[in-house]
Amino acid sequence: MSDYQHEVEELERESATAARLFDVRRIIGGLFVVYGVIVTIAGLTASDADLKKAQDININLWTGAGMLALGLFFLIWLKLRPAVPPTAEELQAGTEEGPAAG
């Protein structure tokens, strides 16, 4: 293989790594899990006065559990369907077509 082909393959690997690293599902899922844990802990340690303010509903516990579930959903979705960067052929075809006329 030529040096050009090695360079192209290396750039494709770096592109795939960047696509997986900056996938918005990872960011959203991670934040929801972290905040869900914090809010769930706040719900588990709620005092009777806190519960009385919320009409005896432990809103922190329920909200934290919901945030955990949503965060885990995003992370599982990311694991089951990882982001796949476009191939060199797809990029080449996209540049040949040009911008859409509007």
**DSSP strand tally:** 0
Which percent band covers the strand fraction? under 5%
Shape summary:
rod-shaped
The helicity comes to over 70%
Q: Which sequence of SSEs, written as H and E, runs from N to C? A: HHHHH
Radius of gyration: 23 Å
Calculate the mean pLDDT score and round it: 82
* Low confidence ranges: none
Secondary-structure-based class equals mainly alpha
Report on this model:
The protein is built from 5 helices and no strands. It is mainly alpha-helical. Helix 2 (24-44) packs antiparallel against helix 4. The longest helix has 22 residues, at 59-80. The mean pLDDT is 82.
Give the SSE map:
Blueprint lengths: L2 H19 L2 H21 L3 H6 L5 H22 L7 H10 L5
How would you describe this structure in keywords?
102 residues, mainly alpha, 76% helix, 0% strand, rod-shaped
